[in-house]
Design a protein that fits this description.
The chain has about 60 residues and is mainly β. The protein contains one helix and four strands; from the N terminus they run ββββα. The strands form two sheets. It has a two-stranded antiparallel ribbon with strand order 1-2. A hairpin with a 5-residue loop joins β3 and β4. The model has no long low-confidence stretch (mean pLDDT about 95).
Length: about 60
């Protein structure tokens, strides 16, 4: 599964694109996920997708 936050599970969302004449067409919204290097509890470094909300909240132990 690509483009899914490994912390909270956030992925694509669906909704409607509404035009000026109020016609509705299906649209998908992608989550703001970034590929970052994360250190696990055992010290292993892996590359995972994490959403921007989890990065700002400090829910991951990020390595640079």
């Amino acid at each position: 599964m690509s483009r899914v936050c490994s912390v909270c599970g956030k992925s694509k969302m669906s909704g409607n694109k509404v035009s000026h004449s109020n016609r509705r067409t299906p649209k998908t919204y992608s989550a703001n996920v970034q590929k970052v290097k994360v250190m696990a509890e055992n010290g292993a470094v892996s590359s995972e997708y994490v959403c921007a909300k989890c990065l700002k909240a400090g829910k991951v132990n990020r390595t640079y």
